[in-house]
Amino acid sequence: MLCRSNEELIEFVKEAREAAKHGKVAEYIPALAKADPHSLSIAIFYPDGTCVSAGDIEKKITLQSISKVVSLALVLMDREEKEVFSRVGMEPTGDPFHSIAKLETMSPAKPLNPMINAGALVVTHLLKGNGVEGRLQSLLSFTREMADNSQVDFSEEVALSEYQSSFLNRALAYFLKQHRVIQEDVEELIDLYTKQCAIEMNCLELARIGMVFAMNGLDPVSGKQIMPPKVARICKTFMVTCGMYNASGEFAIKVGIPAKSGVSGGIMGAVPGVCGIGIFGPALNEKGNSAAGIKLLELLAKAYRLSMF
Ligand code: GLN
């Protein structure tokens, strides 16, 4: 059984919105602090090109950590899997996304997975292209293709706001550079990474990208295989094991779908073979996931038996 009507979805949104009361908007990136903590929107995109939605779905949000899945997919298409995983691992950390702790005890200094900031910085470092601009453009065109909107771009305001306040990410990058995991200039890498995180789109476009992952890299509407099934499978596996930070285990039990969240309050879900989900609810819980977004996914998973387990 699938959710086929906006009215049904609106009821779930009403119930889930209550959970936002216990959440807080991210403030460490000053531009994100302006978000309305009570807003909640969702879109579900089906492989036949139809979608259902509720809330302010025209509103654009920045991808933040959700972009880590997109950059990983592109890097895995451009480089050998062996090369990528010689620099970043495949294991969950159980630590918050920006934690530096385990890096120091790892020998060699290899971030545990591509969904934590240290690992994502390595993946961004591996993006191919000419300079920051060329690598950004390559990531943008890949994103635009999946979102089916050639206008998708990054928010200059959010990128700059994060660039000016990225002290911890700079620390991670310098650590990685010291240990020769990355070679490039740290300022350049932070410039590219903050632009990547500031790529913005609405819930519908986010759901569409989730749908491409759900369909193993195939865009069923255009008929184009956007990424090899193996790349989509690797990304979805990371979404299950590390996509919701150090709350991924609980999320797998309560919801049971590959999903990735970001500090802007976005969540991208990919229900294998069924649909893509895009959610925006900026008030975050103590683990940094959208409080209302998680509640909404729990309600939907129960009502429509979404769990893959
Ligand atoms: N841009 C954010 C950062 O690096 C992304 C983190 C997140 O969404 N959890 O801090």
List the helices and strands and how they pair.
Layout: H1 6-17, E1 41-45, E2 51-54, E3 60-62, H2 67-78, H3 81-87, H4 101-105, H5 117-125, H6 131-147, E4 153-154, H7 156-165, H8 167-178, H9 186-197, E5 199-202, H10 203-214, E6 218-219, E7 224-225, H11 229-242, H12 248-254, E8 259-261, E9 266-271, E10 275-280, H13 291-304
Antiparallel strand pairs: 1-2, 1-10, 3-5, 4-5, 6-7, 8-9, 9-10
Helix pairs in contact: 1-13, 2-11, 5-8, 5-9, 6-9, 7-9, 8-9
Bound molecules: glutamine.
The site of glutamine has 11 residues, from loops.
Query: Quaternary status of these chains?
Result: single chain
Cα end-to-end separation: 16 Å
**Unreliable stretches covering 5 or more consecutive residues:** none
Bound molecules: glutamine
Number of strands: 10
Number of domains: 2
Q: Which percent range describes the beta-strand content?
A: 5-15%
Annotated CATH architecture of the largest domain: 3-Layer(aba) Sandwich
How is the main sheet built? 5 strands, antiparallel
- The count of helical stretches stands at 13
Mean model confidence by pLDDT? 95
Percent in helix: 40-55%
CATH topology of the largest domain: Beta-lactamase
Shape: globular
Q: Biggest sheet: strands side by side, in what order?
A: 2-1-10-9-8
Q: Regarding CATH, which class of the largest domain?
A: Alpha Beta
The CATH homologous superfamily of the largest domain is named DD-peptidase/beta-lactamase superfamily
Q: Taking Cα atoms only, what radius of gyration do you get, to the nearest Å?
A: 18 Å
